[in-house]
Amino acid sequence: MCEAGRGAGAMVRLFVAIDFPAGLRERLRTPQEILKQSRARLSLVDPAIIHITLKFIGEVPPELVEQIIPALETISVEPFDLRITGIGSNNPRKPRVIWCTVKDSGRSAALHDRIEAVLEPFGIPREGRPFQPHATLARVKQYDPSLTARLRDIPPEDYGSCTVRSWQLKKSILTPQGPVYETILEVPCA
Asked: The CATH number of 3-188 is which of 3.40.630.30, 3.90.1140.10, 1.10.730.10, 3.40.50.80?
């Protein structure tokens, strides 16, 4: 199952994520369309790959991937519900990242903590700040004040909910057209 661990020893860029179902991702196009009306230069995330990052691992050697996989497979969590409750940003005055906010009764934060605990023995450091579940919609390449107005134009809305039945270890390949993600491990919720 782990093809990423084979090959010539090139580093592998990894992260752990929760994918959204297609219908939920498609509903997130609406706020992206409003954001595009600003004069800011934005890098919009393709709705097909919008996800919650539970843990960004970074670049690791292929042999470490082979060790990480069985460690992640030891984590067992029950399925849980999450809801996308609105649109936010890292800084209301001059945002650099725009995301959708997620509510899930702390379940993804608990999963994040367990992932951090099993990865730490491999030299993968814990995050320095508290985990807040969110899914990035856009990165701001060049800010313009019109962006703040467009953010206010996005109506407060419930974008829907889903039941998390699995989570994934993904390989990220950076290309000029944007990142390409490959799932190398899917861990079902028990």
From this structure: 3.90.1140.10
